[in-house]
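In response to the reviewer comment on reproducibility (Comment 2.3), we provide here a single inverse folding case reported in full, input and output, so that an independent group could reproduce the run without further information from us. The C-alpha cells appear first.
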C-alpha cells in the first residue's frame, strides 16, 4: 500500500513543533522538550518518519492543566488503536478478510511506533513474528519449501485480503505462482483440481505424509493391498471400490459383476497402486487414465483407453485390447 495524501496534514500542522521538538507547557511558562528526558527510546536502525522528525505531538498530546510526568494522564494518545495510525496511513481493513489484530486496531502488536531494528518497524522479523500468536501448527515431518524458509508473506498478507485465510492469491493460482500448471490440464481433470482446491489433498504448511498429502498415499506402484494405503482417495471415494471380487454397485470398473478394481489392486503381493492407472491431477484420457503406465525398470508401457456407455477398452503396450462391459460378461 502507499501512504495517503492525508500524511501531509499532520506534517503541516506540526511543522512548527517539528523544528523545536518542544511544546508549550500548559501549566507553566517553560516548554516541554520530550527528548530531554526520553532520550533512550527510538535508537534502532529503522526509524518511523514522524518520530525521526521529532513530531511527538502527532501521536502524543500534552493535556491542559496537567504537569508531566508528575500528573497521571498529562500526556495522552491523540487517537486510540488503529485510528492513531490511520491519521496518516490508509485504512487496512477495507477488504473482505481482515486479520484479527488489525481489525481490533492492535497495530503495535506487530509494529513499534517509534523505531525498530527490523525493516517495516516490525517488532520481530520473519516467521517468528507470526509464531508468537500462531505456534504449534508448524511442526511436521515434511515441511513445505517456503514455510521451512520462514517466508509466510509469500502466501499471506499480514493485514487483509479479498481471498480467504489472508491469501495473496486465491485457489490454485497461489500454487501456480511457484509450481508448473502443466500436468493439471487434459481430457479429464480431477474435480478438486478443476475447482482449484489443491489444499483438499495437500497441506500447505507441511504434513506427516509424503508430498504434503493430507493422508496416506504410497510412493511405490506395487504393494500388498490394504485400503489404509489409499486413505487419501477413500476420504472422498467409496472405500469398497476394490474390496470385493464381485459387485454390482461399488465401481463402474467391472465386467458384468467382476470387479476389475479388485482384480488389479487387491492382491497379496504385487497389487497395483491407483497411480499405475490414474493421475491424481489430470490426464489426457477419460477417467484420469494416464497415457503411460510403469513397466519394468525404466520402461513405461503406453496405454490406450477408450470409454463407452457401459464399459471400455484398454490397449496396453503390444498386447491385444481388453474390453469390459458392465451390462454383460466381457471377453475374459
Ligand atoms: C522532565 C522529563 C520529561 C519530559 C520533558 C517528558 N517526559 Fe514523558 N515521562 C517522563 C517520566 C519520568 C515518565 C515515566 C517513565 C516511566 O514510568 O518509565 C514519562 C512517561 C511518559 C509516557 C508513558 C506514560 C504516560 O504518562 O503515558 C509517555 C507516553 C511520555 N512520557 C511521553 C512524553 C512526551 C510526548 C513528552 C513531550 C511532550 C514527554 N513525555 C516529556 C519524563 C518526561
Ligand atoms: C506515530 C505515532 C507516535 C509518534 C510520532 C511518537 N510516539 Fe511515542 N508512542 C506511540 C505509541 C502508539 C505508544 C504506545 C506504545 C505501547 O503501548 O507499546 C508510544 C509510547 C511512548 C512512550 C512510552 C514508553 C514506550 O516506549 O512505550 C514514550 C515515552 C513515548 N512514546 C515518547 C515519544 C516521544 C518522545 C516521541 C517523539 C520523539 C514519540 N513518542 C513519538 C506513538 C508515537
Ligand atoms: C503523523 C503521521 C503518521 C502516523 C500517525 C503514523 N505514521 Fe507510519 N509512517 C508515516 C510516514 C510519513 C511514513 C514513511 C512513509 C514512506 O516512507 O513512504 C510511515 C511509515 C510507516 C511504516 C513503514 C516503515 C518502513 O520502514 O517502510 C510502518 C510499518 C508504519 N508507518 C506504521 C505505523 C503505525 C503502526 C502507526 C500507528 C501506531 C503509524 N505508522 C502512524 C507517518 C505516520
Ligand atoms: C500481524 C502483524 C501485523 C499487524 C497486526 C499489523 N501489521 Fe503492518 N505490517 C506487518 C508486516 C509483516 C509488514 C511487512 C509487509 C511486507 O514486508 O510485505 C507490515 C507492513 C506495514 C506497513 C508498510 C507498508 C507495507 O504494506 O509494506 C504499514 C504502513 C503498516 N504495516 C501499517 C500497519 C497498521 C496501520 C496496522 C494496524 C491497523 C498494522 N500495520 C498492523 C505486520 C502487521
Ligand atoms: C498478535 C497476535 C497475532 C500475530 C502476531 C499474528 N496473528 Fe494471525 N491471527 C491472529 C488471530 C487472533 C487470528 C484469528 C484467530 C485464529 O484464526 O487463530 C489470526 C488469524 C490468522 C489467519 C487466518 C485468517 C482467517 O481468515 O481465518 C492467518 C492466515 C494468519 N493469522 C496469518 C498470520 C501471519 C502470516 C502472521 C505473521 C505476519 C500472523 N498471522 C501474525 C493473531 C495474530
Ligand atoms: C505456500 C503458501 C503458504 C505459506 C508459505 C504459508 N501459508 Fe499459511 N496458509 C496457506 C493456505 C493455502 C492456507 C489455507 C489452508 C486451508 O484452506 O485449509 C493457510 C492457512 C493459514 C492459517 C489459518 C489456519 C490454518 O491452519 O488453516 C494460518 C494461521 C497461517 N496459514 C499462518 C501461516 C504462517 C504463520 C506461515 C509462516 C510460518 C504461513 N502460514 C505460511 C498457505 C501458506
Ligand atoms: C513461494 C513458492 C511456492 C508456493 C506459492 C507454493 N509452493 Fe509448493 N513448493 C515450493 C518449494 C520451494 C517446494 C520444494 C521444492 C522441491 O523440493 O522440489 C515445494 C514443494 C511442494 C510439493 C512437493 C513436496 C515434496 O515432498 O516433493 C507439493 C505437493 C507442493 N509444493 C504443493 C503446493 C501447493 C498445493 C501449493 C498451493 C497451496 C504450493 N505448493 C505453493 C514452493 C512453493
Ligand atoms: C485429489 C488429490 C489431489 C489434489 C486435489 C491435488 N493433488 Fe497434487 N498430488 C496428489 C498426489 C496423490 C500426489 C503424489 C503422487 C505420487 O505419488 O507420485 C501429488 C503430488 C503433487 C506434487 C509433487 C509432484 C512431484 O512430482 O513430486 C505437486 C507439486 C502437486 N501435487 C501440486 C498440486 C497442485 C498445485 C494442486 C492444485 C492445482 C494439486 N496438487 C492438487 C494429489 C492431489
Ligand atoms: C477431496 C475429495 C477427493 C479426493 C481426496 C479424491 N477425489 Fe477423486 N474425485 C473427487 C470428485 C468430487 C470426483 C468427481 C465426482 C465423482 O465422480 O465422484 C472425483 C472423481 C474421480 C475419478 C473419476 C474421474 C472422472 O473423470 O470421472 C477418479 C478416477 C478419481 N476421482 C480417482 C481418485 C484417486 C485415485 C484419488 C486418490 C489419489 C482421489 N480420487 C482422491 C474427489 C476426490
Ligand atoms: C488397472 C487400472 C486401474 C487401477 C489400478 C485403478 N483404477 Fe480406478 N478406474 C479405472 C478405470 C478404467 C475406471 C473407469 C471405469 C468406468 O467408468 O468405466 C476407473 C474408475 C475409478 C473411479 C470412478 C468411480 C468408479 O469406481 O467407477 C474412481 C473413484 C477410481 N477409479 C478410483 C481408484 C482408486 C482409489 C484406485 C486405487 C485404490 C484405483 N482407482 C485403481 C482403472 C484403474
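Designed residues, in position order:
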Amino acid at each position: 500500500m502507499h501512504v495517503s495524501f492525508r500524511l501531509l496534514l499532520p506534517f503541516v500542522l506540526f511543522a512548527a513543533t517539528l523544528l523545536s521538538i518542544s511544546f508549550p507547557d500548559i501549566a507553566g511558562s517553560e516548554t516541554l522538550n520530550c527528548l530531554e528526558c526520553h532520550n533512550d527510546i527510538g535508537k534502532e536502525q529503522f526509524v518511523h518518519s514522524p518520530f525521526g522528525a521529532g513530531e511527538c505531538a502527532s501521536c502524543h498530546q500534552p493535556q491542559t492543566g496537567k504537569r508531566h510526568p508528575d500528573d497521571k494522564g498529562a500526556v495522552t494518545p491523540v487517537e486510540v488503536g488503529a485510528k492513531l495510525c490511520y491519521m496518516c496511513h490508509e485504512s487496512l481493513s477495507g477488504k473482505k478478510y481482515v486479520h484479527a489484530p488489525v481489525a481490533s486496531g492492535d497495530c503495535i502488536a506487530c509494529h513499534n511506533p517509534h523505531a525498530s531494528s527490523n525493516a517495516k518497524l516490525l517488532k520481530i522479523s520473519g516467521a517468528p513474528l507470526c509464531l508468537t500468536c500462531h505456534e504449534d501448527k508448524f511442526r511436521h515431518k515434511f515441511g513445505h519449501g517456503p514455510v521451512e524458509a520462514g517466508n509466510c508473506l509469500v502466501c499471506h498478507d499480514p493485514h487483509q485480503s479479498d481471498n480467504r485465510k489472508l491469501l495473496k492469491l486465491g485457489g490454485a493460482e497461489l500454487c501456480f505462482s511457484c509450481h508448473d500448471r502443466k500436468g493439471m490440464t487434459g481430457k479429464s481433470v480431477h474435480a478438486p483440481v478443476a475447482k482449484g482446491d489443491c489444499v483438499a489433498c495437500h497441506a500447505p504448511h507441511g504434513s506427516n505424509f509424503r508430498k504434503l498429502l493430507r493422508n496416506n498415499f504410497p510412493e511405490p506402484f506395487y504393494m500388498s493391498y490394504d485400503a489404509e494405503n489409499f486413505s487419501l482417495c477413500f476420504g472422498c471415494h467409496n472405500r469398497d471400490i476394490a474390496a470385493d471380487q464381485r459387485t454390482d454397485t461399488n465401481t463402474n470398473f467391472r465386467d458384468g459383476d467382476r470387479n476389475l478394481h479388485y482384480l488389479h489392486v487387491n492382491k497379496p503381493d504385487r497389487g497395483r497402486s491407483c497411480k499405475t492407472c490414474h493421475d491424481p491431477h489430470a490426464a489426457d484420457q477419460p477417467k484420469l487414465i494416464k497415457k503411460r503406465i510403469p513397466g519394468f525398470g525404466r520402461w513405461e508401457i503406453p496405454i490406450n483407453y477408450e470409454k463407452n456407455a457401459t464399459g471400455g477398452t484398454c490397449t496396453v503396450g503390444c498386447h491385444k485390447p481388453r474390453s469390459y462391459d458392465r451390462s454383460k460378461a466381457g471377453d475374459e
